[in-house]
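Practice problem: predict the structure.
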Amino acid sequence: MMHIDPVELTETYPKFTILAKRLRAALTGKLYFFNGQKSRLRVFQAINRDIAFENYIETGTFLGMTTDFLARTARKRAAQVYSCELNPRLFAIAGRTVGNLENVHLQHGNSVDFLRSLSSKLSQARNFVYLDAHWYDYLPLRDELSTLREWQNTVVMIDDFKVPSDDQFGWDKYDDEQEICLQHIEGSFGDHAVYFPSYPATQEGEVAARGYCVIAMSQALQQVLDRIPLLKKA
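Answer:
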């Protein structure tokens, strides 16, 4: 079977690619965002129903697929989407897939500087933050969370995270010292609880499920997470 590089395909046909993915999702239910994981989408939807987010913030735009989903979600409540990408090629591609959307603001640069630049403007707002900028040599998670811990009206979802109770969820591990897990982020986000999927990775079906965790930066928002059966506290 011929392998098609999704980066090259999207670079060559940016608008066609994203429109085709939207259409396939509508017809077949196969997601093109959140790693294609339907149970994770249900977790997001449950959070989003209970919290009137004013902003959706993403680190690691990649090709703009999750950005596109967040933009369409945000548009329903006149919210804004902010996303950053470090790789210049990927940033250029994302500019062609989602850069023309009125509520999307793309930034080229590293995620820590990006979040710090937003702090004065957004730290008091209701934000959903999706952290997915951790596939280069430098893992920014600790520094990202050190900034976000002051954003008290914010819920954070971290992609590619090790789920302690289920090794069937994939996660990023680069060497013995660089692994996206609880030990790596310990001490960087205060005493806030960390929530993991309460369901098994096999529930995602044929999709190669990636692990994730969710952190609410206030007690009030933690109560929202406590009410979601698909999540459990670490």
